[in-house]
Amino acid sequence: MINEKETAAQILAQTSLAQGMNEEDVAELLASSDVALRTYPKGAVIFHDGEMPHSLYILLEGEVHILKDTYSGRQIFISEIDRPGDMFGEVYEVLRRPYDMYVRAVTKVKLLEVSSHLFTLDVGEAPRRSALIVQRNLMKIFAGKAYGMHTKLKILASGTLREKIVRYLFPHIDEKGRVTLTASREFIAAYLAVSRPSLSRELSAMQREGIIEATGRSIQILDMERFEEYL
Known about the structure:
This protein is an alpha+beta fold and 231 residues long. Helix content is 40%, strand content 23%.
């Protein structure tokens, strides 16, 4: 347990939730009764669609998928969480709204679960310093998510799939005209609201036309002028 706590402290200290905390603040946060370390086996559902939230979650180890089932029984992939320190479920918890999706463990996972008692504004007359920092940082996190949603809406408003792809890739191009994807194609397809085969076909078409060269998670822009025509 000591090693788990040390690992959790190291990961937590690097998250946006703990920005501005010193070692004592992180230790205080982890020692709180509102914070728990949980382990889930592969295939376990972390929370269900329609369930009322009680915690926000920080991934320490493993991978989970955010999913949604349609009325016809089809499963829709929304997102993947696979980087230690990634957080999910916080919006629903703060708004006290039931989940409209569910999360399943793709591998064995270890999570840090932070109860709403810690970060809602009714924590008591004398909230701990770590709780106040968490509240402040959540405001920044929500602002970042709002900006990210604004960006996503601009991309989704594009007329064609190629325009969506170009607008998704454009902010990530480095000085050598290369994009290194940090997300899987499955995630990107879900983000763009298209099927993965459709995304792959369009990337292949852009490669055949000499606009890009795609190798694994690396995309090299070969013809920037033609690429920018779709912005």
